[in-house]
Amino acid sequence: MIIDNILVFPCGTEIGLEIYRCFQGVKNVRLFGASSVDDHGRFVFKNYTGGLPSVYDKLLFLKAIIKVVKNNNIQYIYPAHDDALIILKKFEKKIGCKVISSPLKTCLIARSKSLTYKTLRNIVNVPMVYSSLDFKNIKFPVFLKPDASQGSRGVIKASNLHQLNFYLKECPELIILEYLPGDEFTIDCFTDFRSNLRYVGSRIRQRIRNGISVRTMPVKDTALEAMAEKINKKLKFRGAWFFQTKKDEHGKHKLLEIAPRIAGAMGINRAMGVNLALLGYYDCKKIKVEIYNQEFSVIFDRALYNAFSLKIRYSHVYIDFDDCLIIDKKLNSKLIYFLAQCRNRGVKIYVLSRHIKDLNHSLAEYGIAGLIDNVISIIDQSPKSKYIKHKNSIFIDDSYKERAEVLLNKNIPVFALDAIESLINHTEI
What we know:
By secondary structure, the protein is an alpha/beta fold. The chain has a seven-stranded antiparallel β-sheet. A five-stranded parallel β-sheet has the order 3-2-1-4-5. The protein is built from 13 helices and 23 strands. The radius of gyration is 24 Å and the shape is globular.
């Protein structure tokens, strides 16, 4: 079995933790984490390297990251910070492995708001940028932002000329933008190796803390989908990327920024069957993928963990056995946790499997026979959808092929192992 080693750096950011969650239950991949600071990554990544030099100390950092790549036989690096992305992509050949991201030129444009606006000004709506040398035409209030930042970090509102002069004196490099009072949105996208925009998932940023979206939910907006198409035609993307907009006083979307990387709250897409970090890895290997987006209502909310609210009702759960309920001859503890909650709520549990041994005997071996209501053994190549008899059901399987078959033929929600967390109710014991 060929196993790809993927390094996430820096692994303790919200981006790095989301990438970690995206690869849970994925076969043939071994994750490694590395960080320059002692962060949460060491509590999450089994294979962890800490204490690397800062990316801003370029020579020392490159020497250290090359050593990590060589010692651990790393084939791919997933950047989990904007500045790390630039350094890793710029020195990709020297580092000696593939960096999963868009081309360097796109990364450099995206890192600068002023360059982003200049590049896309005639393509999509962008905010008005005022000159610090001409205050006469400024309409207050205004936004002040660092040219290179992410989210709403470093954003200041100046309501008059006195405040504007004060903030610019403190930080002269701030750019002056028109004030946008409306709602803020993030648009998660995926572009394949042929430059085709394959996925657009728009969501509203309902609650923001420290510049990070901590509550978000999907929205359907054709204007945002059109913006995604236009941006994708102008800039060359590869894999997962996103952009953010904010509405002006007339309700028109205006571009805030773009980022050719995973977003921390992209996990909302996983709940609906679209794992953007995993798709980016497959695309880096030039593997063609199919994307099925299940458009049920979901709210993504987080504090120190992820919590989902799926607007689906079900009384029956069908699950696979090999590499799903049992992984590497061990119980899948997260799935067992979910099944215990199902049992408490009176939800019926069915094991539906092509397991070559006696399923009842195997369940008894692992001590979970009493947790299962019914066992269905498939002894031929017939599709699993044939054995799902209840409409108000969900289906859990590690196999993409099996999930796609059930989804297309039964039209019930299907979940991969990485999406089990979206089914867990954290209010229950």
